[in-house]
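Quick one from the shared queue. A colleague (R.T.) flagged Lysyl oxidase homolog as missing a structural entry in our internal table.

Convert sequence to structure tokens.
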Amino acid sequence: MRASSWWRRPSAGTALLLAVWLNLGVGQNQPSAQPGGDKLKLRLAGYPRKHNEGRVEVFYKGQWGTICDDDFTLANAHVLCRQLGFVSATGWTHSAKYGKGTGQIWLDNVQCSGSEKGVEFCESRGWGNSDCTHDEDAGVVCKDERLPGFVDSNVIESKVRLKGGAKTGEGRVEVLRNNQWGTVCDDRWNLQAANVVCRELGFGSAKEALTGARLGQGIGPIHMSEVQCTGWEKSLWNCHFKNITLGDCKHSEDASVRCNVPYMAYEQTMRLTGGRSPTEGRVEVAAKTGNGTWVWGLVCGEGWGTREATVVCRQLGLGYAKSGLQETWYWETNNVTDMVLSGVKCTGNEMSLSHCRHHAVVNCQKAGSRFAAGVICSDTASDLVLNAPLVEQTVYIEDRPLHMLYCAAEENCLSKTAAKANWPYGHRRLLRFSSEIHNIGRADFRPKAGRHSWVWHECHRHYHSMDIFTHYDLLSVNGTKVADGHKASFCLEDTECQEGISKRYECANFGEQGITVACWDLYRHDIDCQWIDITDVKPGNYILQVIINPNYEVAESDFTNNAMKCNCKYDGHRIWLHKCHLGTSLQTTKKRERLSWSERVRCAYRSHHALCFTVYCFSCGSSEKELVFSKQTFDLHIQAGCIR
């Protein structure tokens, strides 16, 4: 037991929580190991704090609890920070610096060597065996750098978020109510309310409180109006506000903020060269040589795309990515010719390119500045979202005769078994629905290819401007694909627009294709290929998934809202959809939840894509050794079994 010190602070509410699933099937010498098969959650909590620090809490036997600071060391902090996805710890705190927790004190006298894969492998007094009070709750301060290849974000969403901003710390304010995200009306919106939002999200004070949907219009409900804060509340939900009534506010009045963000000096390790303007150019990064000096080098263009370019533009403070270029031969060159980085794969949410997965040893088939990666940045971008309720309202089944499907077969809009059918006799069973795709961003959505390269399809007599515009998938409840379809964007146009907005794109007479800001493109249920071929699908429960712009061909300000999922029941004759909602694609989340932390680390480096979604992946081939990305993760990689 320890007396209180100057570190101690009064109890306070919890801000953002960091959580990661851990598989605890392996025992240890001390009783803190959890029984086989059960899972443990770990999170950082407390207030005030940054995203990489906080009171350590564990979830055991259905209850959150804390860890006592007795015998706590920096080695313990290293283990906990790695479990949370950070490379290491920079310190630890005692005496409930981040406020006193509640409930059980699950672990006491924890003693780690620092090399353990998880705190459950460290010695302790055992679960729930403690003589401490919550005045002695331990906390950790983790290094801000994330573990490369740590695929899952371990942030449990707060009830406030920012969307649509070009830079870190700015965006449209959205709040979560009744499990549905909505916006905030700008009536009486001011700097005091913006201060609360910024601090709640871990930033500094607010620079600006923006009105009039300056950072883009949202969709869905408007949850708050006439928000009044003193400026010291811990959450926007603690401020006084009015509920929206019909007609009170429109999305053209969505509130936004710009927050003060700590200076991270990320731009000092990267620059753009050769471009026609400061917002474009060949990407050059600072690399450390064997003698300890730093030199500028190029990034290999192989596999480089929109999401990687998005991270570069954000890191340099240049807004969104307009294009990610794999060749930059047409730009002026300098004396920098060596490739120092290859195999870069980003999710698009990283703060720095160094946080993305990449090869440890440069492996680039096409060397030289001609094939170096480049970017074109912009302060605005489009943002496509699907009208989920409309899908639910318009779904039905059609048995369509084969003699009416020749064009659809030519464009690969039917399942593979259709090729074996007795044409033109028989039929295919089609799951049909309408899809209405809105552009809520701040720039028009335009196909990547210009009109000169569009492909004419004689059967349907129209042009294709994108190879794939939308994926339609029917998945089993565990995320396995059982039927799929795709829709080429044969005609992107403004079907309808909000009041006061004029249509700019239409397909007639070989017109320009695109979707204007605040307009939407409607694909009716009776259009060819607007379906999933479910002829071979058995009755049962399924997931319908729709993903817009699935190959990230066109840059957007937010890719997380490009997917829609619905629960689906099919009895062999009829079909029902319910709980349709926007969110990340199911196949990239469902199976991740089933993986333990150690399994994810084992699998994360199997390929440069780091897409390990199968629960059966338990080893890594020796041929993938070059994909260990940094010295900090080397020991972790060995422990996980990827290097033998």
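Residues 1-31, 151-156, 584-644 have pLDDT under 50 and may be disordered.
Residues 74-83 form the longest helix (10 residues).
Added to the table.
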